Predict the structure.
Amino acid sequence: MGNEEWKQKVAGHRQRLRDKYLEKGLDIFTDAEVLELLLTFGTPRQDCKEMARNALVRFGNLAGVIEAPLQELSTLRGIGEKNAFALKFVQDVARRYLKSRLVDQKITVKGASDVVEYLWHRFAGHKREVFLVIFLNIKNAIIQMEEVFEGSLTSSAVYPREVIKMALKYDAASMIFAHNHPSGDVEPSSQDYAVTKRLFDAAQLFDMNVLDHIIIGESGRYLSLADTGFLEQVKSERMF
């Protein structure tokens, strides 16, 4: 096959992928097809099938590829700096979109499931624990989100005074706490419980509610301390 014929074949395949997306959407795409189509934007006139497969073999799945460190992506055969940049940009656009949807559209939070999609994207790829506070108004619509700590979470790592200061700044009525477990295991530690209790007590002093503390793991896993009944337990203990 001549060079010109090869270029036409590659171009035809790319167009069929694009037409497939426009006609039927992304749900019927495999991870390999999604990644291949993404790579076409940064790799003109080349077949991206093999590099998409190589990346999936290296990182396991589409989420693993997009969440991979920039340096590792850049050095993977066929990916290079341009494609690595594009993939990380896609991830950051997704984060901004999900945050904008929650904050700007004043989405009312009814439970952990309303915010976990954003939190998965927010914490993806972090090798250290990050503690985030979501501030809500009296109608449980999100006002703002603030990262307040990064490192190994201990009972003294997150300062209640700083969290309350932020809450007063945003005139928040309620808060949701969230942090990630880089290990992937969502089982709460004794420190997770201790931090939750300290922040709950601080919030009560200012007549603010703590709606949840959500722990984010890997592969879409999460645990809600509200769903486990722990927050109700803490609340009942503080009543006596």
